[in-house]
Specification:
The protein has 96 residues and is mainly beta. The chain has a single domain, classed as Jelly Rolls, CATH 2.60.120.10. The protein is 0% helix and 41% strand. It has no helices and 8 strands. It is globular and about 35 Å long.
């Protein structure tokens, strides 16, 4: 069994959408924008602007599934990230 908690640092850019790939089945993930100047775009579908939200400079967005039978499955890509400027980085935390 993998560790119940993992942190990954992801470099992003303002041109392409970077998928966040879940390393193991988990019920919680958090995306922290380490850029203290620029926001980060987050989408659940990289080609659909109606699924977009912004993570403010220096802010964190948590995603949690409170029901044990529903999870973010290993290998899934629940969110896609794009810098509004610069290259981030963002920190993604996964918790079983």
């Amino acid at each position: 069994m993998p560790a119940p908690f993992e942190i990954r640092v992801v470099t992003i850019d303002p041109v392409s959408w970077t998928p966040v790939t879940v390393p193991f089945d988990c019920s919680n993930l958090a995306v922290k924008n380490r850029d203290n100047t620029n926001a980060v775009r987050m989408r659940t579908n990289s080609s659909d602007a109606t699924t977009e939200d912004l993570i403010g400079a220096g802010s964190e967005q948590s995603l949690a599934i409170p029901f044990h039978r529903y999870r973010f499955p290993a290998g899934s890509q629940p969110v896609f990230l794009q810098a509004t400027a610069g290259t981030g980085p963002v920190v993604v935390k996964f918790l079983v």
